[in-house]
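Q: Got a minute? One more chain.
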Amino acid sequence: MSNSKVVHWLQDHETRLFHFVNQRIQHQLLDQFFTRITHLGGATASIMIASCLACFGQGSLRIAGLQALLALTISHIPVAIMKKRYPRLRPYLVHPQTITHKNPLTDHSFPSGHTTAIFSVIIPCVYALPLLGLALIPIALVVGVSRIYLGLHYPSDCIVGCMIGTTVSIVTVAFWG
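A: Always. Here it is, folded:
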């Protein structure tokens, strides 16, 4: 199979997955849930959570907060570079049938900054207290899915955001101590 056929096959399957999440599982309760939870990956929430842990946390949670702040800062450098270098239009701008909600974003889609941010913040916390991973990792994954559900990102945008946030956080934690 040639490279162009592989790329076309991947794009086709990604678009199908996007349409499934964005259109087939729509429900009023999911609209409310995803509209709220998506903000956990936003700048305000992610900075506030990490800052509160750094300022008010005790012991390993305080260190996790400091690590999260550093990882959050560093992880958005590759995000900014990739958004400029690979200016992918947001799905709702490409697919007219996309269901969007309040205030759709207009900057580039790839990679997902919200997904990057939530993983940048949770991974140091999971290292500090591994049992937190049982709650935090599913929450972070749901934030990523929310970005697709709300018509703002393709699945690969969120997967790459997850990879960037997780990798930067792991490196930050490893070099910290």
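A: DSSP finds eight helices and no strands in the chain.
Q: Perfect, thanks.
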